[in-house]
Design goal:
This protein has about 325 residues and is mainly α. It has 15 helices and no strands. Helix content is about 75%, strand content about 0%.
Length: about 325
């Protein structure tokens, strides 16, 4: 069997595993609920709160675009926020409907030609964006748990999250601030892996100016507080006397759950985490299932439609697809 066949087989295996995990998660939720009570919970939802949540989500995604444009400009990319809207939203839509987060690969290796930036810069900005998001979510979850002592959690869970909330930002800062020195050390090593890692670290160095890190950090906090606002609005829509911290914790749980392999659209792990979080803050199992369904649709549907529209009105985004297929490295 050739290397290419092994690679293709591995991708299909990942897809199958993801679908199986999704099926198990959804099956567990379905097993726990009463369909009649589920219908009653959905019908009892106050939809005006969803409107407020979607406004917060819109601001959230605009700030994501602003952050990405800021990172690209700091590394020499001649772009502004308006030009970054279409490729950013299009990649989100592709992530929502394709397996293996292929939308990220398209943003890193296909869309750069339409923006006039290198693939290595686009790839580095994407990795840095994901690291910022992960650290911010863990930090906010730690703050939420620290400020919510009444939540029924094992002490080791609370302590672990609090520790990660402290350690993760420090580790990220250390990686970014030493990226230039690490890239120069890798110059002595031959091979594609060392070259690609060197390019990634060089991109980090270009985007690690103190002023940018402060701006990107503050934007990241605002972005995820905006997404937490959507979850908080959904809690209010179900008539729960929940605090904003409850929405913050559920948002963090559900978002971290998307790191688990699943079917396209993050179906399954997201729903199970949102379901568990809702019941943790006092909702019934039927409210938890309804919450998970509405939260997922609130995040998935608007971003998918917006991204599809961007692809439709900006066909030039895909002009780099042919050259991307001829190169396997971000250069």
């Amino acid at each position: 069997m050739t290397q290419q066949e092994n690679k293709s087989r591995g991708k299909w295996l990942s897809v199958v595993i993801g679908i199986a995990i999704s099926a198990v998660c959804v099956g567990y939720i379905v097993h726990r609920i009463d369909p009649a009570e589920l219908r009653r919970a959905v019908l009892g939802f106050n939809w005006k709160f969803l409107v407020v949540g979607l406004v917060a989500l819109s601001v959230d995604y605009w700030l994501r675009v602003v952050r990405w444009a800021l990172m690209l400009r700091s590394a020499g990319g001649a772009v502004d926020s308006a030009r970054c809207v279409a490729p950013f939203l299009a990649s989100i839509a592709l992530n929502n409907v394709l397996p293996l987060r292929l939308g990220d690969a398209v943003r890193a290796f296909v869309f750069p030609s339409s923006l006039g930036i290198t693939r290595s810069l686009s790839f580095a900005s994407l990795v840095m964006e994901r690291l910022l998001d992960l650290v911010t979510i863990v930090l906010l979850m730690g703050i939420g748990l620290w400020a919510s002592p009444d939540l029924q959690l094992h002490a080791w869970v609370r302590q672990t999250v609090l520790a990660l909330g402290i350690v993760a930002p420090l580790c990220l800062g250390l990686i970014l601030l030493t990226s230039g020195a690490l890239a120069r050390r890798l110059e002595r090593f031959p091979g594609a892996l060392a070259r690609n890692l060197r390019q990634l670290l060089a991109g980090f160095e270009a985007m690690s100016k103190p002023s940018l890190l402060w701006a990107a950090g503050l934007l990241s906090l605002t972005i995820w507080l905006g997404e937490a606002t959507l979850f908080y609005c959904l809690l209010l829509g179900f008539g729960l006397k929940a605090t904003f911290l409850a929405g913050l914790i559920i948002m963090a749980l559900a978002t971290l759950a998307t790191l688990v392999p699943s079917s396209p659209g993050y179906i399954g792990p997201f729903h199970l985490a949102a379901f568990a979080g809702m019941t943790l803050v006092g909702g019934t199992t039927e409210q938890g299932a309804s919450f998970a369904l509405i939260a997922h649709l609130s995040l998935w549907l608007p971003t998918t439609l917006a991204g599809a529209l961007c692809l439709a009105i900006s066909p030039g985004l895909l002009r780099g697809a042919r050259t991307a297929r001829t190169s396997q490295s971000p250069n």
